[in-house]
C-alpha cells in the first residue's frame, strides 16, 4: 500500500523474486515496472534483442530468455545480486512466462525438464508454452530420447503447444526426426512404454481408468438379461473397443499423483479408412535397424487373422503390442513382412472386402508412388498408426534446413494424411526435389477429411525440379481449400537432364475453384508467362494478395498481359508486390498499376524503376499517386531514388492532393542525411498548408546512408518523428557503397 512515488523508487532495489511479487501492487498504484525490467535485461543479458522496438512487455521478454539461458547453462544466477535470492527458483518462477522454448544439441534441456525435481516446472510449461523449437540437434543416447518422449507427450498431447519447429539439422537422425513428427501429429504408442518409466503419465492412466469403467457400467445395465441368459462371460468381454480400453488401463501401470489435465483433442486413433497404408492388413516389424546408426534386434508382431467374411475396420487400434515394452521407438517405423522378392502387396479376398495393396496408388493413399516417391521393398515410411493412441496434435509444423530423404518423406506423408488439426505447414530448404509429390499425396488425402483445417503451405528450396507454375498448379489441384500458398526457389535444377519423370496429371489437371487469398511465387530466374499463370488466377477469385519475385519478363508485352488478366480474374486483389523484377522498360504498366482503384498496397522492390527513366516519369508517378485515393501503402525499396527523388516524393502530400497514402518505404535507396532533412522540411510545409492534417503515418528508412552525417541525420529524424512513425537502423554505408558501385 505504498504511495506511487515511493514504490517507483523502491522497485529498482528489489530482487527478481520480490519484483515479481510487487507487480500487482505497482499496477494498482499506476506505476509501470517496464523500465526496471528493461534495465535488468541490459545489466544481465548484455545484448540488444532483435526487434526491440516491437517488444511490448519487457517482463515477459526477460523471464522467458532468462528461463532458456538457465536451462541451457549459459547464465549463472550468482552473477547478479538481483537473481541470487534464496526464495527464488530460477526455472520454477520464470516458467509461467515462457511461451516459446528452444531445445538444442543433445537434448540436455529435455532431460532436465523431465527430471523429478522439475515436475512443477513442466506443469507450468504445459499451460504456458505455445511454440517448441528444436535447433542444431545432435545424436543422443537412449535416456535423452526417453526424456524427449515424455516431454513431447506432456507439452503437446496434454499441453498447449500449437507449433513445432525443427531447424538447422544438416545430417538428421531419421528415427529421432520421425519420432518428433509423429508425436507432433498426436500419435503415441499406448501405455506400456510409459509403465516402465519412473514418472508415468497420470493423465493417460486416468483416461484409461475412465474407459475401463465404461464396460462395467454397461454390464450392470444389462445385468438382468445376462443372468437370465447365463452369459456373464459376454458381459466381461464387451465390444472390441471396450476390451481395448481395459487393456490400455492395465498397461498404464500403477497409480501416481495425477497431472493437470487439459482436455485431449482425441483419445482414439481414428483415421480415414481410405488410407490403405494405415490399415492393419499385414504383419509389421520394426525397421528401425535399417535407419538407425545403432542396430536394434528385429521384432515381429503376430497378426491375428480375422474370421472369413468379417470386415476389419481401420478405425480399430491394434490389439497387440511389441514384444519388448522397453523399446519406445518401434512405433515409429513399421514395414510389411519382406520376402526375397521384395513384394509388399497384400491382397485380401474375403467376402465383402476390396483388394488391399500397400504399394498401390489408389485414391486416398497418402503416398501414391509419384516420381521420386516409389516405395521399395522394406520402406521405413509406413507408420503403424494402429499401434498408437491418438492425442492432441499441433496446428503448425515448420521444418527449416533439414534434408528429408525418401523414407522420411513417406513417413511424413503418412502422418499428414490424417493430421486434421494441422493448419500451417512450412517446408524450407529440405532438398525435397521430386519427393514433393509424396508430401502432396499426404496433403491431398488430408484435404478429403471432413474435419480438415489445413490452410497455409509454404515451400522453399535451393533447386526446383519442375517449373514453379507447374508446381503451383499441382498444389492447387490437390489442395483447393488453401488460403495461403508460397512457393520459392533459388535456382533451377543444376543438372541438365536430371529432371525426373513428370506427373502428367500436374500440368494438365484442371484447377478447381480455390479459396486462395495469398499467392507468393519466387521464380528461380524463370520467365513469367502469363498464359501459365492464367489458369491459377481464374481459379482464385478470392485472391487478395499476389507476390511475384525474381521473375524475368520474356517480352515487353508480358507485363501488360498480366495486368489485363489481374483486372479480369482477381476483382478482390488488394496487395500486389514485385521483387527483383526488372521494370525499367515498363513505365506505362507501372503507372497503370499506381492508378488501379482496387489496389491498396503496391510494392516495387529492387525493380530498377529509375534506372533509365527521365524526370517526367517521376512527375507522372507523383501525380498518379496524388489522384489515387484508394492506395494506402507504397513500397519502393532498392530503386536508387537518391536525395532529389526522395524530396520530390514529398509533393504526394501537397495541398491539392487527394491521396490517402499512409505508409511509404524508401529503404535501400542511397538517401543521405541532407536529402532526408530537405524532405522533412518540404513535408512540414505541406502539413502547414493543409492545416496540420495529412494521412501519412509511417516511413521506413532501413539501410540508407544516414551515418555519413550523424548530426544532420538526428535533426531530420527528430523532426520527422513529430510528423509520423519512423523506422530506421544503424547501418554501415561504406560496404553498401561498394555493393552499389558493383551493380551500376
Automatic annotation (TrEMBL):
Residues 296-313 have a biased composition (Basic residues). Keywords: Leucine-rich repeat, Phosphoprotein, Repeat, Signal, Ubl conjugation pathway. InterPro entries: Leu_rpt_41 (IPR026137), LRR_dom_sf (IPR032675). Residues 1-22 form the signal peptide. Gene3D superfamilies: Ribonuclease Inhibitor (3.80.10.10). Residues 204-313, 345-371 are annotated as: Disordered. One of its GO terms (cellular component) is nucleus. This is Leucine-rich repeat-containing protein 41. It comes from Myiagra hebetior.
Amino acid at each position: 500500500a505504498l504511495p506511487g512515488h515511493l514504490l517507483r523508487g523502491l522497485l529498482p532495489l528489489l530482487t527478481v523474486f520480490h519484483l515479481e511479487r510487487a507487480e500487482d501492487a505497482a499496477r494498482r498504484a499506476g506505476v509501470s515496472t517496464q523500465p526496471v525490467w528493461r534495465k535488468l535485461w541490459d545489466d544481465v543479458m548484455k545484448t540488444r534483442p532483435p526487434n526491440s522496438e516491437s517488444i511490448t512487455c519487457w517482463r515477459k521478454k526477460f523471464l522467458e530468455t532468462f528461463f532458456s539461458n538457465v536451462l541451457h547453462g549459459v547464465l549463472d544466477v550468482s552473477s547478479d545480486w538481483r537473481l541470487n535470492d534464496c526464495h527464488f527458483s530460477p526455472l520454477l518462477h520464470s516458467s509461467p512466462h515462457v511461451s516459446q522454448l528452444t531445445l538444442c544439441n543433445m537434448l540436455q534441456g529435455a532431460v532436465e525438464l523431465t527430471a523429478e525435481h522439475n515436475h512443477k516446472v513442466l506443469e507450468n510449461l504445459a499451460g504456458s508454452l505455445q511454440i517448441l523449437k528444436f535447433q542444431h540437434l545432435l545424436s543422443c543416447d537412449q535416456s535423452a530420447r526417453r526424456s524427449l518422449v515424455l516431454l513431447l507427450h506432456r507439452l503437446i498431447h496434454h499441453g498447449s503447444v500449437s507449433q513445432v519447429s525443427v531447424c538447422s539439422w544438416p545430417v538428421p537422425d531419421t528415427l529421432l526426426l520421425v519420432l518428433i513428427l509423429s508425436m507432433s501429429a498426436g500419435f503415441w504408442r499406448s501405455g506400456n512404454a510409459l509403465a516402465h518409466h519412473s514418472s508415468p503419465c497420470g493423465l493417460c492412466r486416468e483416461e484409461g481408468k475412465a474407459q475401463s469403467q465404461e464396460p462395467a457400467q454397461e454390464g450392470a445395465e444389462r445385468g438382468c438379461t445376462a443372468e437370465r441368459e447365463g452369459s456373464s462371460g459376454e458381459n466381461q468381454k464387451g465390444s472390441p473397443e471396450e476390451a481395448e480400453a481395459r487393456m490400455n488401463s492395465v498397461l498404464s501401470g500403477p497409480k501416481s499423483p495425477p497431472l493437470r489435465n487439459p482436455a485431449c483433442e482425441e483419445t482414439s486413433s481414428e483415421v480415414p479408412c481410405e488410407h490403405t497404408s494405415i490399415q492393419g492388413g499385414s504383419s509389421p516389424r520394426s525397421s528401425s535397424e535399417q535407419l538407425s546408426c545403432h542396430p536394434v534386434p528385429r521384432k515381429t508382431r503376430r497378426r491375428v487373422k480375422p474370421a472369413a467374411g468379417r470386415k476389419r475396420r481401420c478405425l480399430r487400434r491394434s490389439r497387440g503390442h511389441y514384444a519388448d515394452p522397453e523399446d519406445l521407438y518401434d512405433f515409429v517405423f513399421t514395414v510389411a513382412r519382406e520376402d526375397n522378392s521384395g513384394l509388399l502387396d497384400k491382397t485380401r479376398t474375403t467376402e465383402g472386402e476390396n483388394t488391399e495393396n500397400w504399394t498401390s496408388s489408389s485414391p486416398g493413399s497418402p503416398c501414391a508412388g509419384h516420381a521420386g516417391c516409389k516405395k521399395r521393398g522394406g520402406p521405413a515410411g509406413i507408420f503403424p498408426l494402429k499401434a498408437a493412441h491418438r492425442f492432441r496434435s499441433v496446428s503448425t509444423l515448420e521444418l527449416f534446413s533439414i534434408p528429408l530423404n525418401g523414407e522420411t518423406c513417406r513417413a511424413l506423408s503418412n502422418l499428414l494424411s490424417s493430421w486434421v488439426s494441422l493448419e500451417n505447414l512450412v517446408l524450407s530448404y529440405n532438398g525435397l526435389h521430386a519427393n514433393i509429390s509424396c508430401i502432396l499425396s499426404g496433403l491431398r488425402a488430408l484435404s478429403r477429411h471432413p474435419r480438415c483445417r489445413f490452410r497455409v503451405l509454404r515451400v522453399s528450396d535451393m533447386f526446383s525440379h519442375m517449373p514453379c507454375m507447374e508446381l503451383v498448379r499441382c498444389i492447387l489441384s490437390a489442395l483447393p481449400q488453401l488460403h495461403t500458398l508460397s512457393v520459392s526457389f533459388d535456382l533451377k535444377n543444376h543438372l541438365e537432364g536430371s529432371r525426373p519423370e513428370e506427373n502428367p496429371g500436374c500440368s494438365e489437371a484442371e484447377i478447381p475453384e480455390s479459396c486462395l487469398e495469398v499467392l507468393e511465387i519466387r521464380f528461380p530466374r524463370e520467365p513469367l508467362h502469363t498464359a501459365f499463370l492464367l489458369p491459377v488466377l481464374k481459379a482464385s477469385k478470392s485472391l487478395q494478395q499476389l507476390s511475384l519475385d525474381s521473375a524475368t519478363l520474356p517480352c515487353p508485352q508480358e507485363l501488360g498481359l498480366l495486368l489485363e488478366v489481374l483486372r479480369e480474374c482477381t476483382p478482390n486483389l488488394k496487395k500486389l508486390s514485385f521483387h527483383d523484377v526488372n521494370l525499367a522498360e515498363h513505365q506505362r504498366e507501372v503507372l497503370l498499376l499506381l492508378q488501379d482503384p482496387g489496389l491498396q498496397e503496391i510494392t516495387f522492390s529492387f525493380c530498377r524503376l529509375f534506372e533509365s527513366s527521365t524526370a517526367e516519369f517521376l512527375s507522372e508517378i507523383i501525380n498518379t499517386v496524388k489522384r489515387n485515393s484508394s492506395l494506402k501503402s507504397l513500397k519502393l525499396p532498392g530503386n536508387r531514388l537518391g536525395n532529389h527523388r526522395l524530396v520530390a516524393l514529398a509533393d504526394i502530400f501537397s495541398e491539392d492532393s487527394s491521396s490517402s497514402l499512409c505508409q511509404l518505404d524508401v529503404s535501400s535507396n542511397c538517401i543521405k542525411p541532407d536529402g532526408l532533412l530537405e524532405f522533412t522540411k518540404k513535408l512540414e510545409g505541406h502539413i502547414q498548408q493543409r492545416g496540420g492534417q495529412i494521412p501519412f503515418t509511417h516511413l521506413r528508412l532501413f539501410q540508407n546512408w544516414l551515418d555519413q552525417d550523424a548530426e544532420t541525420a538526428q535533426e531530420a529524424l527528430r523532426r520527422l518523428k513529430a510528423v509520423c512513425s519512423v523506422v530506421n537502423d544503424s547501418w554501415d554505408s561504406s560496404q553498401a557503397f561498394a555493393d552499389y558501385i558493383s551493380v551500376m
